[in-house]
Amino acid sequence: MRKLPLVLALLLAATPLQARTILFVGNSFTFGEHSAFHYYRSGSVTDLNAPGPNGKTVGGVPAIFKAFTQQAGLDYTVSLETVGGRGLDYHFAEKRAVLDKAWDDVVMHGYSTLDQAKPNNPALLVSSSQAMAEMLRARNAAVKLYLTATWSRADQTFPEGRPWFGKPIQQMGKDIAVAYDLAAGAIHAAGVVPMGLAWNRAIDTGFADANPYDGIDAGKINLWAYDRYHASAFGYYLEALLVFGKVTGRDPLSLGGSETVADDMGFSADETKKLQQLAHDELAAQQRP
Questions:
Q1: Closest-CA residue to 80 (of 23, 29, 134)
Q2: What domains can be seen in the chain, in order of their start residue?
Q3: Residue 109: what are its φ and ψ, rounded to 5°?
Q4: Does the structure show a pLDDT above 80 at 8?
């Protein structure tokens, strides 16, 4: 076998591999509304809608993901395109100019009730996921697409007249997961980030409180923000752990109890480990036949 000239071999060895690009597309469930993560480490990621009306750039779940990858020794260039209260149909129609590029990985989700006009109807999620997939694959046929199945909203479950009223708090997360599995199958996605099911697991195991309307039980965390709609810092951290595990293939437990983002948020080592264990367990459950 012919050997490369020494100078060329040294140059190739010294040239760093190109960072893998990842795009997050979503709404307030991605940018961390009502939590300290909203503008967290915003300089570490690229906000494609920046600057916003307040002149700030968003960090959110993408910035947490970026911090995780850095701690794991991985190289990702992270971008996000988020608009509050919108689904993928909006992003495809209104944000195509910034989305229509070649990406290595894309993590995306729609509106939290699937369709604002028709709650729990998966049709719009499926059609808008298909439109996004077609656009993204036209730029890079090898792009890996991931869908994030979001969590049960307490404000859609406990108050009378809401779509999931009278049902267990876990039901909305289960319904959303079924819809995202349907959409993932339609676009041959690389995977679904099981956020809603991990949220249910946190409740079922007694780590998280099931009903923020009647107070938070002693020794349990609150996964919701004050509006019982968005996530708390604990909830967004869990979301980022699941994305990290699903996209990189690394075990969330590998980050350890002294993980720096959790430390920034003031989580205890025990809380951090339990959140990582939840992510590990739910991702492992998705791998079982």
A1: 23
A2: 17-287 (3.40.50.1110)
A3: -155, 160
A4: no
